């Protein structure tokens, strides 16, 4: 009997497609920082505050880019309380002159340096000091937590403005660094409490327990595992507080306890303008407007960072 031959199939079934390889660039898990940056880029508040802050920081670093005038040059005979001259927008007299015959615009531009330096340096100092104390109290607990918490409560009982005012009275000559010192001594407590709470939450996480079981030391656990995960709330509070430190410096200078001549700052100019407010309101309004915009920019930036770091607010 002849052997039957199987005819080849007309349309053979295609081979099973190989499983698609995941796109490592698209499906790779993002870190907290990358995810926060992605949210910040989509936030209008972030871009508004960023543009303002870049402008003011450039003004503080290189004031000559914004004005060619001398902020200390005085001409009482020709410029005493001269009003703004809007016909000379690109010159140094378009914001008028103060009671010493000095350009309000030039002094406002140069005044950004001292005010921003005070705000940034105080923020860095209180973040380091408060963050360190809060991290120790939150991680070790026990008697150390009780001791540091009581010290924090004592300083919390002293208002920032009042404490800095009393402390700065002890200095015969007050500079930027004495003001930074006074605000730092009475301004680190909020950061300490925020860090303490964040560390208490993070030290109970599974990755900390695993690191401790693998023999990681206290320093490695604190700075490599807990701190990167607990620093988010501290960054938010510090960013918002920075604007508050700038306004506090202006308040101290307005009261005559902060920065003094020959230092040029917005607070010093606002203090000097109070005697001529009725006759020349522009002398006060110009530096006060720049101060308000700077504080507002830092507050907006803090709000944007808070929204980006907290998934519950998205």
UniProtKB/TrEMBL annotation:
<dbReference type="InterPro" id="IPR035906">
    <property type="entry name" value="MetI-like_sf"/>
</dbReference>
<dbReference type="Pfam" id="PF12911">
    <property type="entry name" value="OppC_N"/>
</dbReference>
<keyword id="KW-0813">Transport</keyword>
<protein>
    <submittedName>
        <fullName>Oligopeptide transport system permease protein</fullName>
    </submittedName>
</protein>
<feature type="compositionally biased region" description="Low complexity">
    <location>
        <begin position="7"/>
        <end position="23"/>
    </location>
</feature>
<feature type="region of interest" description="Disordered">
    <location>
        <begin position="1"/>
        <end position="31"/>
    </location>
</feature>
<keyword id="KW-1133">Transmembrane helix</keyword>
<keyword id="KW-0472">Membrane</keyword>
<keyword id="KW-1003">Cell membrane</keyword>
<comment type="similarity">
    <text>Belongs to the binding-protein-dependent transport system permease family.</text>
</comment>
<feature type="transmembrane region" description="Helical">
    <location>
        <begin position="284"/>
        <end position="305"/>
    </location>
</feature>
<feature type="transmembrane region" description="Helical">
    <location>
        <begin position="177"/>
        <end position="195"/>
    </location>
</feature>
<dbReference type="InterPro" id="IPR025966">
    <property type="entry name" value="OppC_N"/>
</dbReference>
<dbReference type="InterPro" id="IPR000515">
    <property type="entry name" value="MetI-like"/>
</dbReference>
<feature type="transmembrane region" description="Helical">
    <location>
        <begin position="45"/>
        <end position="66"/>
    </location>
</feature>
<feature type="transmembrane region" description="Helical">
    <location>
        <begin position="116"/>
        <end position="142"/>
    </location>
</feature>
<feature type="transmembrane region" description="Helical">
    <location>
        <begin position="226"/>
        <end position="246"/>
    </location>
</feature>
<dbReference type="GO" id="GO:0055085">
    <property type="term" value="P:transmembrane transport"/>
</dbReference>
<dbReference type="InterPro" id="IPR050366">
    <property type="entry name" value="BP-dependent_transpt_permease"/>
</dbReference>
<feature type="transmembrane region" description="Helical">
    <location>
        <begin position="154"/>
        <end position="171"/>
    </location>
</feature>
<dbReference type="GO" id="GO:0005886">
    <property type="term" value="C:plasma membrane"/>
</dbReference>
<feature type="domain" description="ABC transmembrane type-1">
    <location>
        <begin position="112"/>
        <end position="302"/>
    </location>
</feature>
<keyword id="KW-0812">Transmembrane</keyword>
<dbReference type="Pfam" id="PF00528">
    <property type="entry name" value="BPD_transp_1"/>
</dbReference>
């Amino acid at each position: 009997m002849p052997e039957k031959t199987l005819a080849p199939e007309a349309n053979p079934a295609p081979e099973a497609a190989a499983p698609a390889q995941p796109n490592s660039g698209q499906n790779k898990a993002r870190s907290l920082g990358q995810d926060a940056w992605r949210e910040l880029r989509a936030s209008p508040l972030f871009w508004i505050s960023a543009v303002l802050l870049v402008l003011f920081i450039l003004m503080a670093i290189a004031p000559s880019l914004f004005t060619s005038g001398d902020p200390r040059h005085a001409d009482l005979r020709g410029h005493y309380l001269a009003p703004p001259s809007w016909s000379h927008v690109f010159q140094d007299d378009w914001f008028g002159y103060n009671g010493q015959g000095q350009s309000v615009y030039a002094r406002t531009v140069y005044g950004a340096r001292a005010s921003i330096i005070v705000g940034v340096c105080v923020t860095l100092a209180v973040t380091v000091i408060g963050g360190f104390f809060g991290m120790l109290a939150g991680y070790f607990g026990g008697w150390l937590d009780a001791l540091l918490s009581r010290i924090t409560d004592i300083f919390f009982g002293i208002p920032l403005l009042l404490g800095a005012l009393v402390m700065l009275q002890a200095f015969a000559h007050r500079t930027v660094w004495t003001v930074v010192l006074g605000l730092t001594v009475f301004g680190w407590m909020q950061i300490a409490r925020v860090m303490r709470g964040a560390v208490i939450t993070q030290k109970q996480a599974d990755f900390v327990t695993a690191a401790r079981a693998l023999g990681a030391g206290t320093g490695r656990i604190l700075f490599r595992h807990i701190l990167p995960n607990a620093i988010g709330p501290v960054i938010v509070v510090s960013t918002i507080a920075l604007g508050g430190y700038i306004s506090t410096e202006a308040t101290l200078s307005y009261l005559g306890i902060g920065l003094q001549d020959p230092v040029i700052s917005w607070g010093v100019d606002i203090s000097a303008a109070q005697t001529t407010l009725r006759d020349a309101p522009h002398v006060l309004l110009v530096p006060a407007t720049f101060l308000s915009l700077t504080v507002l920019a830092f507050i907006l930036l803090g709000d944007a960072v808070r929204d980006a770091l907290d998934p519950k607010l998205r």
